[in-house]
Specification:
- Helices cover about 45% and strands about 0% of the residues.
- Helix 3 packs across helix 6.
- It has about 180 residues and is mostly helical.
- It has one domain.
- It has a two-stranded parallel sheet with strand order 1-2.
- Its cofactor is a divalent metal cation.
- It is found in: Nucleus.
Length: about 180
């Protein structure tokens, strides 16, 4: 999770790189925080995710099969534009710390790799705070993998609530009030 200035606000580096994004999300402190925030009635806070994440009232994903120039399409365009910030942030982080690039895997234990990723995140944020320029990309440097995966079943589904419907209501409200 990052802000518009590419400062990383939350990282979860506890799982191997082959883990699905939705699995990491469902097991992250940020997920628990967002669930608790919404359960306490603070429903004006949400994050944006790609279609590899489950739609929830606190995690908004794109609309499937949006008709061109419809409110849903305008929402998707805005959502994609904002989501590109995290992709740019990941790219800048990997250029600053090239050991994080896809083909330069960290050949350490998961625990040590996690510490390296967390340290790189802290140093990246220090670079942002110090207004240091981003590293210039060289041809062939970035081979980023922003793969999309099927979302895992959320435990709330099993507890009688329907968080997917809650997410649809939240997303539809935003589309109705901001993209008509």
């Amino acid at each position: 999770i990052c802000d518009p200035k590419l400062k990383i606000l939350n990282v979860c580096a506890r799982f191997p790189g082959s883990s699905h994004d939705s699995f990491i999300w469902n097991n992250s402190n940020a997920h628990t925080f967002m669930v608790n925030l919404h359960e306490r009635g603070h429903r004006s806070f949400f994050l944006l995710g790609d279609s590899g994440y489950p739609l929830r009232s606190y995690l908004l994903t794109p609309c499937n099969d949006a008709v061109p120039d419809s409110p849903e399409d305008r929402y998707n365009i805005a959502q994609r534009r904002i989501r590109s910030i995290i992709e740019r942030c990941n790219g800048v982080l990997k250029l600053r710390f090239r050991c994080l690039l896809k083909h330069r895997m960290l050949h350490y234990s998961p625990e040590k790799s996690s510490k390296i990723i967390n340290a790189a995140t802290v140093l990246h944020n220090m670079c942002i705070d110090a207004n240091l320029p981003n590293v210039v990309e060289e041809p062939g440097d970035l081979d980023l993998d922003f793969g999309m995966y099927e979302a895992d079943i959320n435990l709330h589904m099993l507890q009688g609530r329907n968080p997917l419907n809650e997410g649809r209501r939240q997303r539809n409200y935003i589309i109705r009030t901001r993209f008509q």
